[in-house]
Design brief:
Layout: E1 2-7, H1 19-26, E2 31-36, E3 49-50, E4 60-61, H2 63-73, E5 78-89, H3 92-98, E6 103-108, H4 116-125, E7 127-132, H5 142-153, H6 163-168, E8 187-188, E9 191-192, H7 202-220, H8 222-225, E10 236-238, H9 244-261, H10 274-283, E11 285-291, E12 294-304, E13 310-318, H11 327-337, E14 345-351, H12 355-363, E15 367-368, E16 378-384
Parallel strand pairs: 1-2, 1-6, 5-6, 5-7, 13-14
Antiparallel strand pairs: 3-4, 8-9, 10-11, 11-12, 12-13, 14-16, 15-16
Helix pairs in contact: 2-4, 9-10
This protein binds 6-chloroguanine (6GU).
6-chloroguanine binds near residues 83, 85, 131 and 144.
Amino acid sequence: MRLDYLTIFPDFFAPLDLSLPGKAADKGLVEFHVHDLRSYTHDKHHRVDDTPYGGGAGMVMKPEPWGEAFDELTRPGSTIIFTTPSGEPFDQRLAADLATREHLVFACGRYEGIDQRVMEHARERAEVREISLGDYVLNGGEVAALAVTEAVVRLLPGFMGNAQSLVEESHADGGLLEYPVYTKPPEWRGHQVPAVLRSGDHGKVERWRHDQAVRRTAERRPDLLSPSTLDDGTPIVRATQGDAAELLTLQRACWVQEALANDSLDIPALHESLDDVRTWLGVWDTWVVRRAGRLVAAVRGRLEGPDQTAWDIGRIMVAPDLQGSGLGRVLLDHIQSVAPATVTWYVLFTGAGSVRNQRMYKKAGFRLRPDLDAPAGAVVLTKRRA
Ligand code: 6GU
């Protein structure tokens, strides 16, 4: 990957020779080229700014030097990145996306911004991204370009020695924050390392870490916890005890249908009471969708198996008027995505005669498992976690 930087403060980029990006350059994975924007001016004073049309405070960066710099530096396949507080928020997903590019050109603005025509022109000759680090204002885009660089370069194949640490870090594990970590000594200034980490029980350690990650996320970044939404932005949220009655109603509607499709009234879900629903709500991780206040869909999952590595998915329910809308598939994808880190495979049951359900599950990567036990009239499907 080649990275170019356009700036009026080339000295800001001295850290590129250090530490992580420096190592990547030494390995030949990346090439950094820093350019002084003033070298693309032709007047005696190397002016890069001028007063804004329409008046107002501050100065605006002139278009001409940027145009000349892009003429020289961009080629087919280049991506031009403007670092600006009015850009799209930078996150791990965007970093991973940019890591697939061959050539990034960072355009670091200063003052009150860059003449808008520079961005218009850039879009005519390259892919353009306007990126912000967050909701605060820096004096210029240089520090932001360095941050984006570091986040991207460490994702390049062959860069990190330990691929697992890429998987485990914050914002990589199902969007959760990272769990707390400890090293020796076991006691320090009266503070203990949690006993579970010294127990030697791998499964227990994994579950503890996942639990800590969820708690931390709930406390510090609740916005990350139930980020799933339908295409129209309708959120998929965790069910509460208050949802029990509506869940029972939805369940009755769906399971009568299931009973008819399978020629059997012998389906336990059909015979559950409100108390039964309240009870399983306490032990299953249950998610629901509301439309105009009405509970229209639900799904639940929980750990199973002696080693708790299976995620049992069930009760995918969609209100009769919304069946066939793709909602069931969205919920199926969602419940897989919220399975704890320990999960290595998914399992679900459906009626042997529920043809439409089975087709959806197969499309989602599930396979029939006649070798595994299923209740009478039902089939088992499983899928390995990717
Ligand atoms: Cl990318 N640039 C500037 N100037 N300020 C910022 C920013 C970028 N992201 C957050 N604040």
